[in-house]
Amino acid sequence: MNLGLAGRRAAVAAASSGLGFATAQALIAEGVKVAICGRDRDRLSLAAKRLGSEATPILADVGTPEGATAFVREAQDALGGVDILVTNAGGPPPGGFAGTPLDAYQSAIDLNLMSTVAMCKAAVPAMQERGWGRVVAITSITVRQPIPTLILSNTARAGATGFLKTLAMEVAGDGVTVNSLLPGFHATERLRTLRGGDWDKVANEIPAGKVGDPGDFGAFVAFLCSEQAGYVTGSAIPVDGGEYRGML
């Protein structure tokens, strides 16, 4: 299927590895010019080399609103504009209510909520002016089904979901769609950090019986950015092999 994305320009945050990298890879395969960012210069350079000439690496830390804004601004300068924004960031440390200090919440909110707000503030107005744009946020299944040991992620990403839904309603008439994808367990370094490298054990918890392939996730992001998905907006879609057990 031709997704109608050739020649578009995308900023994909936190894309030196994991789901961000897979997303950048999928968009490039559709003819999109992509700016990626990461905090580690060596990892970022390696990722850009793997992605090829259509990838522009930008050293940036989207863990703060200032860093998130700077990434989008640099991507706009490098690409001549941004038609597609994929917001993404690492996850805050694990922990529950009793063991998580109050001052840990602000950094988690900056990382997983305010970075998304900042990137959208920097990118969306120009999309509205052009009459076309796509925002896809990579969040977590925890916004639908909180994980007890991830209270910081549960809290911050739920806030981001509320922001994205509200934004979607405001800009839909301008040709801009805003959606979020809620990944479950995918074979990434984040999952390895949280659960170790025993993918078979993790797979036993998932109805699909396997850990998710980041490449498949990236392909789904690309579809949401397509012309064919132009009527999909304001959605928060689990991509989790059936892990989310709720009906709605």
From TrEMBL:
One of the record's GO molecular function terms: oxidoreductase activity
SUPFAM superfamilies (UniProt xref): NAD(P)-binding Rossmann-fold domains
Source taxon at top rank: Bacteria
A Pfam entry, by short name: adh_short_C2
Keyword field: Oxidoreductase
InterPro entries attached to this UniProt entry: NAD(P)-bd_dom_sf, SDR, SDR_fam
The family this protein is said to belong to: Belongs to the short-chain dehydrogenases/reductases (SDR) family.
Record protein name field: SDR family oxidoreductase
Organism classification: Bacteria, Bacillati, Actinomycetota, Actinomycetes, Streptosporangiales
